[in-house]
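Appendix C reproduces, verbatim, an entry submitted by the partner laboratory led by Prof. M.T., so that reviewers can inspect both the input and the predicted structure.
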Amino acid sequence: MKISFIMIVLNGMPFVEAVLESIYDMAYEIVIVEGAVAKCMFAANSDGSSNDGTIEFIKGYPDPGNKIKLIQGIWPEKCEMQNKALGIATGDYIWLVDSDEVYKKEDITTIIRMLDDDPTITQVNFSTFHFWKGFDHILSSKILKKTPGFFRLFKLEKPCFFTTHRPPTLFLKQRQKCTNTIHLVDNITLEQKGIYLYHYSYVLEKQVKQKIMLYKRYGWGKYWGLDLDNWYENCFLKWTPENKETIEKNYAIWTGDKNSVTERFTGSHPHSMGPLMAKILGE
């Protein structure tokens, strides 16, 4: 089964290394669409490119299989970035990976075997561990747990296009249906197999600061009834394992759920995260 991994990225360091390491061997191709969307130009170079070394790293990444295809630009929105990648991808399935989303290699192998066994599958959703201020705690939200998981893996039948990025929704023109309405393997099914997406999205200050600045430009703080600057300064920056109970009485850990908290992560991380975790924890 040929898997075309698609990554849209701006300022993906340092996690992009672990992402590529986790997917490279199993990939048929890796299509990377890099650059800022219009509302995120504040975080980019004047040409819209990453300013944290992401481009230099990707161009220097060992690619003996000639699998990596890099496209750069300034984009109206993330949906356009995904659709640009669709025009290039040639695999049987596409698998979206953000630059801070890592999988265990053995789980990817299991998924590919599942698709080989049943190629009628049109979409796979994943439950997610969202890491918080390091690698020992994750977000816990009843709202997130009630969602159908992250839409990440889709059957590629051209012509097709993404109708939206939130959540990624792929429309197959010949069937006149979206992939999630045909043959979906849901996140609960994968949970029962012990398969998760490992999302290192709230680990570093620079990551979260960029998120908050972008959220403000979308006006999401008003939608959530949240002062985002106050949340960043007094929740994220001040939170520690020692004062977590006090902080979490006054602040939502996840901005989309006022009752969200943290919990201890008791599982194991993907092997490809090992060197990066050691480097970050050693700094």
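The mean pLDDT is 97. Additional entries are available on request from the coordinating office.
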